[in-house]
Write a structure and sequence with these properties.
128 residues; alpha+beta; YaeB-like fold; five-stranded mixed beta sheet; 3 helices; 22% strand; disordered N terminus
């Protein structure tokens, strides 16, 4: 008897790591519980799908070089974890920003904080 594989068994799932910069973790921890849970769900999706995570769950961060934003609740959350891929299987969340349309100034400040934090990590790791 010939065994047949289900199409679900023919795919390899590659897990990704999502790490928080300590200051981003502190920013997240100051948010209301419901927002922290929404962010945790978005992070779980990034861990599962990695760079294949589609819009509306992530998008390019406005004004950031190689910076992306997670969009908890498919964009309905007022908060955006800002992250960058730092290795083949690893992402670092470097800041938590208010949603850009409602908090443009706060969003741009968070973009600058994220880029500075990621640049500091690159320097410590011997990157460019």
């Amino acid at each position: 008897m010939r065994s047949e594989l289900s199409p679900y068994n023919s795919r390899v799932i590659v897990p990704y790591s999502v790490l928080y910069h300590p200051e981003a973790e502190a920013e997240r921890d100051r948010l209301p519980r419901g927002e922290r849970l929404a962010i945790a769900n978005a992070v779980e999706k990034l861990e599962t799908f990695g760079p294949g995570l589609p819009f509306p769950h992530q998008s390019k961060a406005m004004g950031g070089a190689d910076l992306r934003e997670l969009r908890p609740r498919a964009g309905r959350s007022p908060w955006r974890p800002l992250y960058r891929r730092v290795a083949e299987d690893t992402f670092v969340i470097a800041a938590i920003a208010p949603e850009a349309e409602t908090g443009r100034r706060g969003f741009q400040q968070a973009v600058r904080r994220a880029e500075k934090r990621l640049d500091e990590l690159d320097t410590r790791r011997g990157g460019p």
